[in-house]
Design goal:
mainly alpha
């Protein structure tokens, strides 16, 4: 799996988990959903993604985006 696919999969899982937590535990978990969405948006414009940096350092294969 390339870094791009891992980042997208991680973001999708984080959003789904935080939506579930917001529904069943506390509505404030939606702030985490907003944080993940904001990171995806700024990454699209700047190319900077903290998770991609970590994945590069542990030796994952990079694709075209990162």
């Amino acid at each position: 799996m390339t870094i791009e696919r891992i980042v997208l999969a991680f973001a999708g899982v984080a959003i789904l988990i935080s939506l579930g937590l917001a529904h069943y535990v506390d509505i404030n978990w939606l702030w985490f959903t907003a944080f993940v969405g904001f990171n995806l948006l700024q990454s699209a414009f700047t190319g900077f993604c903290p998770l991609a940096i970590v994945l590069k350092k542990i030796g994952r294969e990079s694709g075209a985006a990162f």
